[in-house]
Specification:
It is a single chain. With 374 residues, the protein is of the alpha+beta class. Among the domains are: 141 residues, no CATH class; 94 residues, Chitinase A, domain 3, CATH 3.10.50. The chain is built from 12 helices and 9 strands. Strands 4, 5, 6, 7 and 8 form a 5-stranded antiparallel beta sheet that branches. Strands 1-2 form a two-stranded parallel ribbon.
Length: 374
């Protein structure tokens, strides 16, 4: 008892995981509230959740899917887990409109996991693992052979490095003039859409198969319904079943010139692109030429320029650090000796006659005058 008392005291001070072992039995809102308070005092908690909901979102899932009502279990998982506030809000979120009105996202998550895992208890276990407790994290470190002191030291080092990087780019800002200038210089490349058409098209290796598709569509068949008669060996590519894609007007030239005057809603082709490549297609809707206005993309432009300035500042910062670095070599045997300089004919020459070398970069780590061989 004395050892347990000492261990519990240490746990209470946050020195080691553990604490008294507690089993909580219940259901409804009260159990999850109790668990939320208990986890501040111990990580050895077992919750036995009684589930008998027959109303609300849980009741609907119980009736429709034949599963245990997940609402109280969801609340307990969230109460015990150490998760970000936004994730807790997500698990507890209830839809406000539509057919899902009143249903909780967390309930749907557990219900979906029930289908994936094949059983309710496996689903609960899997969901719990996605939102681990502090005790589960400590067990993971222990199983990985990672000591908490080493973990904290590594984490502290990463935080220091991150703060150095943040400090290097502190105060970075993009003016309205800079953003507008970038937009004007690049709007044709990034923000301009040429005139064209949305279009369903396909390329086939066999002209007879292509002609068969054209004839079927002209006879009234739907575009997506005619492809069952085409073998995969004959098909090079076609637009996805999800819908037509944009094709600029400039594409309708040379072999595809016949499509330039094709009326929307009618099929054209086959047009031979190569010896075994035949193009067929249906224009759908006309798309006018347009340019996105600056005020619609100014936020994106500023974010892009800010990131670019940040990278430049960080590159300059680390280059300056390397320039200030002083390297002391204590064991020259660790490094290969440089070859003697040679002339154009490959004959060794003395150092004073060797051609002058270029400047030494910071990456080549110049040896300071204090270097000594030990």
């Amino acid at each position: 008892m004395k050892n347990n008392s000492v261990k519990n005291t240490l746990h209470g001070k946050g020195i080691i995981p553990g604490g008294p072992k507690i089993v909580a039995i219940g259901g409804g809102t009260g159990l999850s509230v109790l668990l939320r308070g208990l986890k501040k005092h111990t990580s050895n908690i077992t919750a036995i959740v009684t589930v008998s909901d027959d109303g609300g979102g849980s009741g609907v899932l119980r009736e429709d899917m034949g599963i245990l009502p997940p609402g109280d279990i969801r609340n307990c998982i969230v109460a015990l887990a150490n998760i970000e506030p936004i994730m807790e809000q997500l698990m507890q979120y209830r839809f406000r409109e539509g057919k899902l009105k009143g249903q909780s996202f967390g309930n749907l998550f557990i219900a979906a996991m029930n289908d994936i895992c094949g059983s309710f208890d496996a689903a609960v276990r899997e969901v719990s693992e996605q939102f681990p407790t502090k005790e589960a994290f400590m067990q993971y470190l222990d199983q990985s052979g990672v000591k908490m002191a080493a973990f904290r030291e590594n984490l502290a080092t990463q935080i220091v490095q991150q703060k150095m990087v943040e400090r290097a780019s502190a105060g970075i800002a993009v003016t309205e003039e800079e953003a507008l200038d970038f937009y004007e210089k690049t709007k044709v490349l990034f923000f301009h859409s040429p005139a064209g058409y949305t279009m369903d098209y396909a390329r086939l290796k066999n002209e007879a198969a292509a002609a068969k598709i054209v004839e079927a569509v002209r006879q009234g068949a739907e575009w997506n319904a005619v492809w069952s008669s085409v073998t995969s060996d004959d098909l090079v590519e076609r637009t996805p079943e999800s819908g037509p894609v944009f094709v600029p007007e400039t594409a309708f030239k040379e072999q595809l010139a016949a499509f330039a005057d094709l009326e929307p809603g009618t099929i054209g082709g086959p047009a031979q692109i190569a010896s075994d490549d035949f193009f067929v297609g249906v224009k759908r809707e006309k798309v006018e030429e347009s340019t996105v206005a600056y005020n619609e993309v100014s936020g994106d432009v500023k974010a892009l320029l800010t990131e670019e300035k940040r990278r430049e500042a960080q590159t300059s910062f680390f280059k300056e650090l390397r320039g200030k670095a002083s390297v002391i070599i204590h064991d020259f045997d660790l490094f290969p000796k440089p070859e003697a300089p040679k002339d154009a004919a490959g004959v060794p020459v003395s150092a004073d006659k060797a051609p002058a070398s270029g400047p030494v970069s910071a990456d080549q780590a110049p040896v300071s005058g204090d270097a000594e061989k030990k």
